Amino acid sequence: MNHDFYIGWEAKASTEIRKHVRWMVAGLLVMTLGLALAFAATQQTIGISVFEWGTVKKFSGVLRLQPYPHLLVSRPGKTSSNLNFSTYYLVAPFKFGLPREKLASFDGKTVSLQGTLIYRSTQTMIEVIPDSIKAGETKIDWLPDGATIGLRRQKLVGEIVDSKCFLGVMNPGQLLPHRACAIRCISGGIPPVLLVRQPDGSAHYFLLVSTDGRPVNREVLDLVAEPVQITGEVERQGELLILRADPKTIRRIK
Amino acid sequence: MSVAYTAVQWNRQKKFYDFALVGGVALYLVTFGAVTEIFFPFVTEEILLMRAFGTAAFLLLHIILCIGPLCRLNPKFLPLLYNRRHAGVTCFLLAFVHALLVVATYHAGGDLNPILSIFASSPITRSVAGVPFQPFGFFALVILFLLAATSHDFWLANLTAPVWKALHISIYFAYALLVGHVTFGTLQGETSWLYVTAMAAGLGTVLGLHFLGARKELEKDSAWEQKTDDTLVDACAVADIPEKRAHIVCVSGERVAIFKYDGKISAVSNVCQHQNGPLGEGKIIAGCITCPWHGYQYLPETGASPPPFVEKVPTFNVRVNNGRVWIDPKPNPAGSHAPPALLET
User: Fold this and answer.
1) Are A228 and A253 in contact (CB under 8 A)?
2) Which pick of A118, A205, B27, B142 has the fewest CB atoms within 10 Å?
3) What are the residue boundaries of the structural domains of chain A, listed by start?
4) Each residue of A134-181: pLDDT tens digit?
5) Mutate which of A181, A218, A228, A229 to test chain B, going by most B C-beta atoms within 10 A?
6) Interface membership of B105 toward A (CB under 8 Å)
7) Is the Cβ pair B42, A169 closer than 8 Å?
8) What's the burial of A75, exposed, middle or buried (CB within 10 Å: 0-12/13-18/19+)?
9) What is the pLDDT of residues B165-185, one digit of tens each?
10) Confidence of residue B252 (pLDDT cuts 50, 70, 90)
11) Taking CB atoms and an 8 Å cutoff, what residues of chain B touch A94?
12) Cis omega (within 30 of 0) for bond into B278
């Protein structure tokens, strides 16, 4: 037996070499364990959001298509916002928004639909099962206030995210590692949202539309997942905060 | 060494090596997954797996790249090198799972072909966001695949050692691509000091160890002052060579391993035919020069592997005069008999 040399096909290594190999392997395993613990525990981008994947529920309410498809659902009892309805964004499966043209006949009317809930903080979305949207069979005994309240012109700094992933389909669903996915989602019709973080960690969400209220999916693709500054008119439509701005004036912040 | 090709020539050390390798990978994946689920219960599964497999592949690649220079600095690390190719294949498999999850999660299910999306979904701009990190990862994965697919000795023999070695050097290009992939990807989202420090420490360790290994080699080459007569070069003193070991000298730009064994001196090229391992750092076992990397063997007098093996390395003519070894700098053709110099007893 060679005490200072060992090659793998030899039957046995010397005690000295075996001892050294054991220390090396133990050292590598300890390093592996330590790094796995440290990398996992120090992730910073995973928030609190839920996608109820696999759970399909029935919803009924009033369908609105502007600025992006959403459902107004009756909310019984008193609420802090004094609204008698909740607003749920509506999207299609995968990386697509709902086809507005196909749903034009339902705009402003009562519908029932089936889908899966996605939610984060105060925002809720439904991934709608294709062709599950039907004209409502029952009359609603509440009337959503569809009035738009203009707030004021604001200069906002934040990140443009695709609302579907950010609200919970992917977690994390923001920042540069998620950029390609966000671009595909917004390109496919998912509503783009400006995410504005407050110093206390809370966030405001602004649906992005053009100055005349049209969707701006195509126009914002190159600006997704980066810090941007947008100046525009903020208005409230029920629970939705909408930011009307000319996409050409959106500035990338270095 | 093998005459016929088999998928894996299992032996005790390879089994132990793979057991430790698979155990280490499983330990990393399970720990990363469990800790993430405990600290961040709302994480989505596909992203948890994507991160676990991606970081495991990158960590394993660092370990693989450090093994070579560590062995140059201290031969005690050689057992890690013996079955390194299995670590390389494992690294590719981890990276491949990471890539599958990335494509299925981020690029599929949209309005563009998922593979096209890898290249088209990051518009190039003048900001950091404009650096397209996904293509870096794609091309690194292609290289890792080529290296894993050609890791078997079948490809080494058919591509020839120089071509195979040149191909496998591209692991450094893949590593550079992955440094870009991680820096312009994950590190733009995960900005904790730990991630940034780990990236810098990993890069620093790989570069630092390669620098130290190269410096040691250069020091060895330049430490020796070459003296010549008409045809022979004064290589070293016989006393400089330990029994059944070699002394390495650089003659006319080529490293030569001069072995002392059983009262004889022989010299062969320092470069193993198998994977260019340093024969001079090997040992004479059962009458054969044995490469320290994978145990390929050569007869010292002929530079030929004992039958039925067919590998051959060039030999050098040697003389011993007044306790010093002199060698002819002109190599003999690979496998040629060069009579050993006999030592006076």
Assistant:
1) yes
2) B142
3) 1-42, 50-135, 148-252
4) 998 766 666 666 567 777 899 999 999 999 999 999 999 999 999 999
5) A181
6) yes
7) no
8) middle
9) 899 999 999 999 999 999 999
10) confident
11) 109-110
12) no
Task: Report the mean per-residue pLDDT for chain B.
Answer: 92
Residue type at position A91: V
Cβ–Cβ gap A40/B106 under 8 Å: no
- The verdict on a CB contact (< 8 Å) between B295 and A7 is yes
Question: Which amino acid belongs to residue A130?
Answer: P
User: Cβ–Cβ of A32/B188 closer than 8 Å?
Assistant: no
Answer whether A68's CB lies under 8 Å from A215's CB: yes
Instruction: Give the contacts of B170 (CB within 8 A, at least 6 positions apart).
Output: B143, B146, B147
Contacts of B212 (CB under 8 A, 6+ apart): B69, B73
Helix (H) or strand (E) holding B80: helix B78-81
Find out whether B297 and B283 touch, Cβ atoms under 8 Å. Answer: no
Model confidence pLDDT, tens digit, residues B197-240: 999 999 999 999 999 999 998 887 776 666 666 689 999 999 99
Which residue of chain A has the CA closest to B112? A184
Contacts (Cβ under 8 Å, ≥6 apart) of A215: A67, A68, A189, A191, A209
What does the alpha-carbon distance between residue B252 and residue A75 come to, in Å, rounded to a whole number?
89
List for chain B the helix, strand, coil content (%; round to 5): 55, 15, 30
CATH 2.40.50 for domain A148-252, yes or no, is yes
A50-135 and A148-252: identical CATH topology: yes
Domain covering A50-135 assigned CATH 3.30.1490.20 in the classification? no
Q: How far is B228 from chain A (nearest CA, A)?
A: 34
Q: Which amino acid is at A164?
A: K
> What CA–CA distance (Å, rounded) separates B28 from B159?
35
ipTM of the complex: 0.93
Residues of B in contact with A42 (CB under 8 A): 190, 192, 194-195
CB pairs below 8 Å between A and B: how many? Answer: 187
Q: Which superfamily, per CATH, for B227-342?
A: Rieske [2Fe-2S] iron-sulphur domain (2.102.10.10)
Region B49-64: mean pLDDT is: 98
Decide: A96 and B108 in contact? Cβ < 8 Å.
no
Cβ pair B31:A33 closer than 8 A: yes
Cβ B131 vs Cβ B177: under 8 Å: no
Q: What are the two backbone dihedrals, phi and then psi, of residue A13, each rounded to the nearest 5 degrees?
A: -95, 165
Separation CA A89–CA A122 (nearest Å): 12
pLDDT band at residue B289 under the 50/70/90 scheme = very high
Q: Would you tell me how many other CB atoms lie within 10 Å of the CB of residue B210? A: 16
**CB atoms B111 and A187 under 8 Å:** yes
Enumerate the β-bridge partners of residue A50. Answer: A119
Strand pairing category for B288-290 and B297-298 = antiparallel
If you write DSSP's letter for every residue of A184-229 in order, what string do you get? HHHHTTPPEEEEEE-TTS-EEEEEEE-TTS-B-TTTTGGGBTSEEE
Size of chain A in residues = 254
| Nearest residue to B81 (alpha-carbon basis) of B215, B258, B228, B274 | B274
CA distance B36 to B22: 21
**Percent of chain B at pLDDT exceeding 90:** 77
Q: Note whether A181 and B114 are within 8 A (CB).
A: no
